[in-house]
Amino acid sequence: xxxxxxxxxxxxxxxxxxxxxxxxxxxxxxxxxxxxxxxxxxxxxxxxxxxxxxxxxxxxxxxxxxxxxxxxxxxxxxxxxxxxxxxxxxxxxxxxxxxxxxxxxxxxxxx
Length: 111
Prior knowledge:
Number of domains: 1
Helix content: 10-25%
Distance between the termini: 35 Å
Number of helices: 1
Strand order of the largest sheet: 1-4-5-7-6
Largest sheet: 5 strands, antiparallel
Shape: globular
Structural class: alpha+beta
Number of strands: 7
């Protein structure tokens, strides 16, 4: 078997996985980390859940699914960050673009 050289540099954003010996401890929730600021966010597709109040800092997004067409209301929750407010706002904008690109890829993956 040939060996493969691996680049151990993490990308700017990564999905966190809740798989453990206890099962899926995140219960299929979508949690994303911005590596450089150690910011931990949760992405909630609001069309699928009913929640009346969020105590964490949050942002509202709308993603237009171009296949159906369908507008998805998305809420981004901040669980933890080391970023200052100005830097955090830039991270959130980058995360929105990154996550929407992921959704577009996912939507088009099954065509």
